[in-house]
Amino acid sequence: MASLLELRAVSVAFADRSGTLTVLADSLDLGLRTGRLHCVAGPLGSGKSSVLRVAAGLLRPTSGTVAWNGEDLAALGEDAVASRRAAHIGYVDQEATLLGHLSVLENVLLPAVPRRRGAELQGRAHQLLAEFGLAEVASARPAELSPGERRHVALARALLLEPPLLILDEPTTGLDRASADAMIAVLGAQRADGRALLVASADQALIDAADVRSTLGGGIR
Ligand SMILES: Nc1ncnc2c1ncn2[C@@H]1O[C@H](COP(=O)(O)OP(=O)(O)OP(=O)(O)O)[C@@H](O)[C@H]1O
């Protein structure tokens, strides 16, 4: 069976205003199967977010290939990548941005809107909020929640359409240790449920919880 996600010889480089090239990832290989947690580690500014954006099909690599279920993204048009991403990937960016004028429940239901499946997915949204201990705040606005609760809401939103692959950028950043550990436990439960997870993190506890690590600038261990 093909990997859910495969990066082969992926390099990511950006040119600054003077034209000087900064290479963030150099010939990175990564294969991710169901029930595995892979952590992209590395110091501040080492390119973790960029690698995750490449894996999520949001940024084209400078060289190398990215495949989902064995399908090379370079062979697909932008619309095809977007529709496959919607079915295949739950992505949470580093800010775990929520829409402040919507309730917690409405934020979780956002992926249902373009598919007109809001009514059908209400039950799943409530179930995810209950699973994360957030049933009581379903009607609250995001600003009323703690940073840890907001991150769990963003994760619930990413899980709404039951994607096989989660891509999470620094899911414990900005959380106190107890909230960060709660998030790591939730990610472990997702892995045990058979989901594949790709995370970027500088949090040693999350790095230690991973099955495989790619350290930018330092190879794979
Ligand atoms: N679109 C872009 N154009 C030019 N340079 C960029 C672009 N995106 C990122 N960079 C550069 O790449 C560097 C690494 O960015 P990236 O966010 O991928 O690293 P990171 O390891 O996730 O950082 P952090 O730990 O701070 O979140 C940035 O400091 C920036 O200089």
TrEMBL record:
Keywords: ATP-binding, Nucleotide-binding. Gene3D superfamilies: P-loop containing nucleotide triphosphate hydrolases. SMART domains: AAA (SM00382). It holds the Pfam family ABC_tran. It comes from the Bacteria. Residues 7-220 form the ABC transporter domain. PANTHER family: IMPORT ATP-BINDING PROTEIN. This is ABC transporter domain-containing protein. It comes from Microterricola pindariensis.
